[in-house]
Amino acid sequence: MSSPDDPTAASATPGSGEGPAGAAATGGGLVVPPRVLGALAAVACVVVALGAALAVDGRLDRHWVMRGLTLLLALGCAGVLAAENGRRARRIIAVVGLLMFGFVFPVTSTIWSTPPEIDFALWVADDAEAAAVKNARSVVTVEDVKRAAEARGGAIGSLATEKAPEVRGATAYPLIVRAHKDQGRPWACLSFENGLTAKVRAC
Hints:
Layout: H1 7-12, H2 19-25, H3 34-54, H4 64-82, H5 88-111, H6 116-134, H7 142-151, E1 155-156, E2 175-178, E3 187-193, E4 197-202
Antiparallel strand pairs: 1-2, 2-3, 3-4
């Protein structure tokens, strides 16, 4: 029978946190410090932000300002997560912020960067550039773009209507590219810089 002064009694007490019983009670798992979690989250946010931005076609506007602000918010959430002795509610808010600003916003903004009218303009740009190269020209002309758009069932320039009879964006860059010749908006603007470098944007 062990006496109260027996030094082995404390180590054998279940749930005391010492010895085998204590290790089992706490699960014996690896506890990651908050600062390490915050650092890992920050690195992940940077990787996702850059990956999402670079996944966008280089001929499109990658909206670096908006993406930069989103990344700053994500890094702020990572900083809150890294703070020692943070309240539970504060840490939950930080995790939700990391998911939204560090993953959802960058990915969705990348997916939404090419609506149908932008995709059509990119295809027209490819066809017009191919036509210029085929004819040994270093410049894509307005006529190249017009033929490429019409070959795909579209047109260039704004659609003339009773309210707006003047056609815009059909004779000089930036050109208005429409996916359907009998339909106005939505459309995209296409221009060529330095001869063969296409730039497409919403307009």
